[in-house]
Amino acid sequence: AFLSPKMSTDDLSLLESQGTAAGNFWDVGNYRVVLKRINTGAKLCEEFVRLVHERAAIEKQYAKQLTSWGERWQGRVKSNGEYGSLKDGWLSMFTEARELADIHIGIKDRLEQELTSEVETWKKQNYERSIIHWKSFKRAQSAFEKAQAPWTKRKEKILKYKKAIESHSAQAETLRRRVQAGVGTDKTKAQMDKEDFEVAKYKAKLKQRADEMIIYHDVYRHNMLAQFEICQAEERVRIEFFKSALLSYHAKTDFLRNYESVHQSMLAGMQRVNASADLDRFSKEHGAEMPFVLPDEHGNFHLVHDINELKTKTTASVPAPAAAVTVSYQPAPAAAAAAAVAQPSPVLKVDSATHFQVGTRLHALYDYTATKPDELSFAFDDVLVVTAPPGQVEKGWIKARHETNGTEGIVPENYVELEEI
How many Cβ atoms sit within 10 Å of the Cβ of residue 107? Predict the structure, then answer.
């Protein structure tokens, strides 16, 4: 069943829905990962303050232990009979302990009084609470839901028509088998014709809705992208602030020359924070730089980087094999419509020299009938296994073995794709 864009704010995990659309920003409800990032940003402020308080407590305890150790041993040294410059040498250890304790108390004060205050103030200014949610969360949620509402209705109708086609097709096929077996009546044939009519009617409606969805995608993209860019800008501010907070942490704890190498390593890690790189990656994996999800005329959804790719998918014919190979497969007129629906379009373009190595499993995109003795026949969806490296066969061809019947021969490269794992 199709899922509504409404969601629980406590459950912000990605949808596990329609195949290629699973987790895709453009599909219905999948903007939730952007909303999750808003909530996570607020929680991370609290986490940062908590860890700084813990570090400050460690500094305070260490200073206390140093002071206690120095006072106890200084009293003993003064009364143990030592004298002269050697006694002063002993006492210098306790002077160092007192000075070191003062340094750690200073670190504790700077962390608690300065750094935690900076983070708490920034959070208060950037995460304003409404009745239940952060206002930025509520604003983004409302904007995304509004942008997706028309898109959702269109997709629901496409899925509804697709389901109706499947239902009426199954009923028509059942009636057709009864008529062919001679057990059907005139009423049975009339019912079969009615079901066939319903199939044709819903196919026309599905195509109309799919065309409308493709036309509307520019408006949908504009509305979704506008809100996404607002969220990206807010996240940039958060990343830049946390970078400055990390560098402030470094400055407040960088106090001993003996720790210089450790602090320099930590500083290098903090200076590597790059807001642009983080935002670009987020956009590619969860946001606006992901491929679009659009339907073809059969109601099947595809990941599309360019709208022209979808037009190619929906209009492309079976490709011709390389060289002088001819395709002998021609569907019977009665089965032509079904074959057109079943015939897939090539979706994977690979470098044969890199990917079609010996042992690689291939997936047949079309039926192919051998026209020469050294060629291998196969059917759509068959699995083939590469048996020779690309350099040993003519360009545009692959030597492979049929996984089911064990026969071996060459096959046209543009009739197969790498098997998905």
Answer: 20
Concatenate the DSSP letters of all residues of 109-168 into one string: HHIIIIIHHHHHHHHHHH--B-SSSBHHHHHHHHHHHHHHHHHHHHHHHHHHHHHHHHHH
Q: Helix (H, G, I), strand (E, B), or coil: what is residue 364? A: strand
Between 260-271 and 186-253, two packed helices, what is the crossing angle to 10 degrees? 140
pLDDT 10s digits, 341-350: 344 443 334 4
Instruction: Look at residue 94 in the predicted model and tell me its pLDDT.
Output: 84
* CB distance 5 to 150 below 8 Å: no
How do strand 397-402 and strand 361-364 relate by DSSP bridges? Answer: unpaired
Task: Pull the structure tokens for residue 267.
Answer: 């500083």
Nearest to 164 by CA among 119, 209, 115, 124: 209
What is the signed CA dihedral for 262, 263, 264, 265, rounded to 10 degrees? 50
260 token code pair: 């210089």
> How far from the centroid of its chain's Cα atoms is residue 144's Cα?
18
SS3 409: strand
Question: How far is Cα of residue 283 from the mean position of the Cα atoms in its chain?
Answer: 9
The residues near 407 (Cβ < 8 Å, ≥ 6 apart) are: 376, 377, 401
CA distances from 319 to 22, 82, 287, 417 (A): 30, 99, 34, 13
Give the C-alpha distances (Å, rounded to integers) separating 75 from 80, 82, 96, 107, 234: 9, 12, 15, 28, 59
Q: Which tokens sit at 173?
A: 């096929």
Determine the pLDDT at residue 22. Answer: 58
Position 332 pLDDT exceeds 60: no
Contact of 195 with 177, CB cutoff 8 Å: no
- Please tell me whether the overall predicted TM-score, pTM, comes out greater than 0.85 for this model: no
Let me know how many helices (H) and strands (E) the chain has, helices first.
Answer: 10, 7
Torsion of CA 240, 244, 245, 248, to 10 degrees: 170
Tokens in use for 420?
Answer: 């998905």
Query: Which band of pLDDT confidence, cut at 50, 70 and 90, is reported for residue 246?
Result: very high
